[in-house]
Sequence to fold (348 residues):
Amino acid sequence: MKVLVTGGAGFIGVHTARRFAQRGDDVVVFDNLSRVGARENLAWLQEAAPSVCFMPGDVTRAEDLAELARLHPEIEAIIHLAGQVAVTTSVADPVADFRANAEGTLNVLEMARTALSSPIVLYASTNKVYGGLEGVAVEKRGRRYEFRDFTRGIGESTPLDFHSPYGCSKGAADQYVRDYHRIYGLPTVVLRQSCIYGTRQFGIEDQGWVAWFTIATQLKRPVTIFGDGCQVRDVLFIDDLVRAYEAAIDRIDVSAGRIYNVGGGPDYAISLLEFLDLLSEAAELVIQPLSADWRPGDQRVYVSDIARIRTELGWEPRIGPAEGIERLVEWVRENREMIAPILAAGAR
Fold:
């Protein structure tokens, strides 16, 4: 199978491209290399999977995608990861956020719709399409917040409620991807992803918090807890996410037109304080974070109900938080000299 990975030099992208190349697929990576660490990730990918073909370009430019389609007319699956990923950035520049996420996705869908190969389009959406979940009751139990009634987490039937320009742009794209299946018959799949973490993730305080805390503590930089630290997320290690991509594509007879919530689920849900305990143990460090007020819109808890993808595609996470954090700590330790200047360049 010929597989296109847009945003393929990003954290999720390089792991996805390597995995599909390892299993024998013909992989094309398309990326504008604008993200911090993208060039380093691409260099790693080209060494780890030399068969991967890289093409520079931007999903916001339809002409770049037209050239891509001309050079690779036989693409059978598109894993669409390219986009703007931070809520704070979307608030600072909502127009650029819209172009990257909504317009860029529409350009990808149009490329797929007009292709003779009628490729699968798998779209990496986000749990942010559900908004702040203000109507869902939350209770504080010990060192964590939990849903009072949704013990399995938030399911796909939860009403959409876009908050922030990021939520709007990703949500609009999410619905376009779904509708291109209904209207045009294109085999599309939407994965609403929760908190993804892992190696080769150059996290910052506003996005990629698991990697940010891990890197900052290893580099002896201060870290800050916003709120009381009892906020909960269901974390998912990158290898498990890539397996979900494989399952959705390999079972397109089942997944076409479907939407799946993808995260660690209730079993892999941890509070920030619980995460810091695991990180302290794995890194053999005493972590003394700074404290700050709650950030606007920060959910007390978000946990994915992953029953649908488990039932329909036979997927479930395998790498628990303790193991995943240990792997991430080890990677950061081994790559301190590479990571420090990348983060410094991103801060400028």
